Amino acid sequence: MARHHYFSYLLNPLELLRTKKVLKVNQPTIAARKEAEKTKIFVFDYDAVTINNKELVTVPECFPYINTPTISWINVDGLKQADIEKIGAHFGIHNLIIEDVLSLGQRAKTDEINGLLFCLLNMMYFNEKDSAVEIEQISIVLGKNFVVSFQEDASRDVFNHLREKLKVSNTKIRQNGADFLFYSLIDMIVDNYFVVMEKLGEKIEELEEDIVRHSSTRSLAKINILRKEMIVLKRSVAPVRELINGILRSESELIEDKTQKYFKDVYDHILQANDLAENYRDMMMNLHDLYISNVNLKMNEVMKVMAVVTCLLAPATVIGGIFGMNFEAIPLLHNKWGFFISVSLMLLFPLLMIRLFRNRGWF
């Protein structure tokens, strides 16, 4: 059978070329992450009374925080494979989780391996200059008394408000355990979705006004750009619902019963974000239909004007055609008023037609 298969390629070389082309187009690709030049590690080690906040110089400096009686938040900015593997080996993070942390384009997910609760989701930002939604993959690992978060970009995040809360002794986050910190990080990311959506909503409203006032090919380009941004938004927001639902169903010992209600609140927020994303998607479809309707309306106006002009010129064309025939006997051929009579008729009929069109409300 194999020989017959290859023999068919010899009989039909085009089939071999077509096969190579398909394999070239559909070849499997693995997204490669560009390693950060340097890994920055920030630690918040705290309890209800004390807090210690510092930046670590080397990776091994974070190792002692696995056994402290206090709550430790270890935030890793910039991902280098060697450093992430060292941290994973010391904190008991499974190799599958390390692969997810170092990979690109992952769907939001949650998992529980080796007694650790892991979740991966996208943090979103809105670039005002380019009017684009930018995403950053965030990985968070929850242990008994620690939380390790991995960020791609060290220059920005949405956790600054959380850091300020940690510095205040009487806040809920200082009074609760690592699971509440885990919830707070996810809640910050989900809440920022609404900030990005609000910016997109403003762009959609501006585009709607622009289309209503003057539709153009530039409006269509803006619709296509915003539609792509909505796809990015939807891809980032939709899977987070399953992530939160997975945490609620996990029955992990790391999540205390009193913290469950907070995750339910995040679940409600992500449902609202999904509904809002769907509404924006419908608005984009309506904007596209509005643009098409305006273009068709303009085309109809142009066609109406052209039709009126054609109708008004029709009598002149008929009269000119009649008097332009090469017959010897034509009425008014030798009349000195013949030219003026024909021109008068050419003007009179269009005027009568204009009055008729106005009476019928055609324009």
Notes on the protein architecture:
There is one protein chain. The chain has 363 residues and is an alpha+beta fold. The chain folds into two domains: 255 residues, Beta Polymerase, domain 2; 55 residues, Methane Monooxygenase Hydroxylase, Chain G, domain 1. Helices cover 58% and strands 15% of the residues. It has a seven-stranded mixed β-sheet, with helices on both faces. Helix 7 packs antiparallel against helix 8.
Summary?
By secondary structure, the chain is of the alpha+beta class. The protein has helices at residues 2-11, 13-25, 81-91, 95-102, 160-166, 172-175, 178-213, 217-249, 257-323, 338-359; strands spanning 40-46, 51-56, 71-77, 109-113, 116-127, 132-142, 146-151.
CATH hierarchy: architecture of the largest domain: 2-Layer Sandwich
Secondary structure class reads: alpha+beta
Average pLDDT for all residues: 83
Q: Which strand-content bin applies to the residues?
A: 5-15%
Question: What's the layout of helices and strands?
Answer:
Blueprint: H1 2-11, H2 13-25, E1 40-46, E2 51-56, E3 71-77, H3 81-91, H4 95-102, E4 109-113, E5 116-127, E6 132-142, E7 146-151, H5 160-166, H6 172-175, H7 178-213, H8 217-249, H9 257-323, H10 338-359
Parallel strand pairs: 3-7
Antiparallel strand pairs: 1-2, 1-3, 4-5, 5-6, 6-7
What structural keywords apply?
363 residues, Beta Polymerase, domain 2, alpha+beta, 58% helix, Methane Monooxygenase Hydroxylase, Chain G, domain 1, disordered N terminus
